[in-house]
Design a protein that fits this description.
- 34% of the residues are buried.
- By secondary structure, the protein is mostly helical.
- 70% of the residues lie in helices and 3% in strands.
- The longest helix is centred in the N-terminal third of the chain and has 23 residues.
- Strands 1-2 form a two-stranded antiparallel sheet.
């Protein structure tokens, strides 16, 4: 079975289970989700700054060794995810499942948008479309978020947090370009 057929079948199942809700009312959620996404990225950057800045830690009365790289990763992932919800809202969809969101994102913006009709040419000139790299970055950040949120191991590093921040910024910017 081709990947696109599998995605279409999964999406149908998500709709049947009400994990994906189709409604014109969802169109109005696009901009609020984008705003929330940028706000979440700002919070992730603030958490990184607090983790890195000894003077700021003193000013906030935090312990010398305080760091919160796990929450940088968690918040960066949710910043990306919220921008993905904006992309779904553009399609009149609202998702209640991370897996459903990823399936729609991959199907619509990776596969279907490559098969553009004339009416889509203007959109193509304005945006680069989401590439496999962007989908992969979202999945990788989700994995880092799960590790950061549910594990208490030293695998959560500043480097992982920095990568999550950079990936989130790139992903959100790409979604904004596509939706503009």
């Amino acid at each position: 079975m081709k990947r696109q057929d599998l995605l279409k079948r999964k999406i149908s199942e998500y709709v049947k289970r009400t994990q994906l809700i189709e409604s014109k009312d969802n169109l109005k959620l696009e901009k609020p989700f984008l705003t929330k996404s940028r706000n979440n990225l700002t919070v992730a950057n603030l958490l990184m700054k607090i983790s890195d800045d000894d003077e700021l830690k003193k000013m906030l009365n935090l312990a010398d060794g305080f760091e919160t790289h796990d929450w940088v990763i968690i918040v960066a992932y949710y910043a990306m995810y919220t921008s993905a919800l904006a992309a779904l809202a553009r399609q009149g969809l609202k998702s209640k499942s991370h897996a459903a969101t990823l399936a729609v994102l991959e199907q619509h913006y990776l596969h279907e948008q490559k098969k553009l009709e004339t009416k889509h040419l203007e959109k193509l000139s304005k945006a680069y479309m989401i590439s496999e790299t962007m989908i992969t970055k979202l999945i990788q950040t989700k994995t880092r978020r799960e590790t950061a949120q549910y594990d208490a191991t030293p695998t959560i590093t500043r480097e992982n947090a920095g990568t999550s921040l950079a990936d989130a910024d790139e992903f959100i910017t790409k979604i904004e370009e596509i939706l503009s």
